[in-house]
Amino acid sequence: MPQEIEITDDQVRLAEKYLLPPGKSFDGERVEFIKDLSTHDLHAVPGSGKTTALMAKLIALEQHLPFVDRSGVLVISHTNAAVDEIRHKIGHICPRLFAYPNFIGTIQGFIDAFLAVPYYKSVYRRRPVRIDDEIYDENHFPDYKLSAYLNKRGDGKELLYKYRLGNDGKLTLGLKNKPFIFPETSGTYQKILAIKQGLRESGFLCFDDAYILAQEYLAKFPGIVKILRKRFSFVFIDEMQDIDKHQYDLLETLFGDASEVCYQRIGDKNQAIFNSESEMPDVWQDRNVKELNGSHRLHPAIACIVESLALSPIAVVGNKTNPDGSAIDIKPAMFVYENDTASEVISYFADEVKRLVDEGKINLASDNVHKAIAWTAAKPGDKANMIKLNHYHGNFSKEHLKLKINYPCLEAYLHYYQQDAGKLASIRKSVLNGILRILRLEEVVNPETGRSFTKRSLVDWIKEQHADFYRDFKLHLYQITALNIEQKKSEALKVLVKLATEVLSKLGKTLKKSKSFIAEKYVPVAVAAEEVPEQKNNCFVKNGIHIDVATVHSVKGQTHTSTLYMESFYQINVGRKGQYESSRVADQLQGTPLAAGAHEYIKQSLKMTYVGFSRPTHLLGFAIHKARFDAHYVGKPNLNRWKIITVQPSPKPPGTSN
Fold this sequence. Notes:
Layout: H1 9-19, H2 28-35, E1 40-44, H3 50-62, E2 72-77, H4 80-90, E3 103-106, H5 107-124, E4 130-131, H6 133-138, H7 144-152, H8 156-161, E5 163-165, E6 171-173, E7 178-179, H9 187-202, E8 204-205, H10 207-220, H11 223-231, E9 232-237, H12 245-256, E10 262-267, E11 289-292, E12 294-295, H13 300-308, E13 317-318, E14 333-337, H14 345-358, E15 370-374, H15 389-392, H16 423-441, H17 455-465, H18 467-485, H19 489-506, H20 515-519, E16 535-536, E17 539-542, E18 545-551, H21 552-555, E19 560-566, H22 581-584, H23 586-589, H24 600-613, E20 616-625, H25 626-632, E21 643-646
Parallel strand pairs: 1-10, 1-11, 2-3, 2-9, 4-8, 9-10, 12-13, 14-20, 14-21, 15-18, 15-19, 19-20
Antiparallel strand pairs: 5-6, 6-7, 16-17, 17-18
Helix pairs in contact: 1-3, 2-3, 5-10, 16-18, 16-19, 17-18, 18-19
């Protein structure tokens, strides 16, 4: 067991001072979790404040650092955003917690730092250049013959980019241990194998490589397990439901049966949603389960609906109230549409939000968030009768949802950036990513390290080596950002090309290999043929109500003031359960437990709706086609939980023919 440490009431009160609003305190179930330093799993409902409770525990542990046995605390979360939140909120309070021997970071960062990179250094006598999927893919250079052959195949990109160099030195599909489709003696196999070997030796690794190296490290040097258990006596995994199987297996190998480690896994199994390429295994096997049931996000009318969707049964208690302590009196709304009114659904939702604003039940504050979400968006080849996100909002583009490192042309970097808070900073980051892409295409590296530039290292290098240019560099970045916000993208692109050319010249290079990347024209994705004035990119605006349009995956973990969940077509029929989640979860919304052996699509639909329905603090909306509404909801007792709103066609302008 880890050293004996007791978290006191005074330490809990100290955490309350830093983490909660004045006059607020942790309730009994949270205090119990904060004080508990035994190995267990914590299942927490949406909006339960589990990460805040974890941070309170960390503040308390800070008071005991350094531990007498010189061990540390390991905190792992799934995303950089979650890690940044912890660092931002308690970093100034817990300076020792963010220093050696402790580690607070992502699962990928932990695997890289403690397993993959040390093993790579022991084999190749140097650090890897970069561990990143996009840059890894970018460094594949097949010869002309192989490239021509792969271009003719429908699966050519998968053959080139998705296969990895396995522990046995052979090609394997991702981490699935599926062998290459061609014999090892074939020319295609040998050429792709040589590319993968070259990437490994040159230090360009993908994320899968990190886990392959980590597994090989542990297989060859099993004593590393004992060393890590001695290094970390307290291990906390936040958002455990988001851990993939290979990550889960590694963590279990390291800490699963460690009696000398306090190992706590924290999350909500019902929110384990995966992308379309993932299977849906229940990788999280329960161990000594405790629960947080009270939700500070959901009010009772929404909580009872969310509870009925829980694939792993858990009580969901809605504790959300108005600021004055009064109950929130807002009934969830069903928006019943037909084929010709799907595009009116978001408008009706905006009207309902406006009505609640006018009644004083929703505050139209600047920090309030209103979103319309769906599981799936349209893809090439979809039939017209497959209702998906784009039927509700014709201008929806998945490319606007995520800021990436790489885009097919330089101009795209001026279009794709985070549209919400911090717009100036987000555009600047995207512009810098575009410059870095040019440097990589020109095969330019940092002359001081011999490795590819990062945004930070590029700015630092210019500041240190070309101080006279540094001021102009910053001014040009600002000019590009300002022009972009003013929608003068062609002018912004010219300044960006000029700036990239000047950066290259400081490095003794000129534009050569990146010319086609710069010249390539930006082609918008999924833009409606006739733009509706109220539909801008992924946002719908009406009567001052801004409603962001997004996928369910992209809003996971968020809190909204109001959320409209729009049913969408997903996969083929499952028995009589249909092709839409509105049909598949209808029984559970009526209180019927899920039958044993239920199809995976039904389980996925439950998790998807559970995540989507649990976002709003005030208004929950559910868009459902009249045919499915009539078939599965009309006449059922739990329908009285919902306000029913029938979506009508918008009036035609005078003089318009029918």
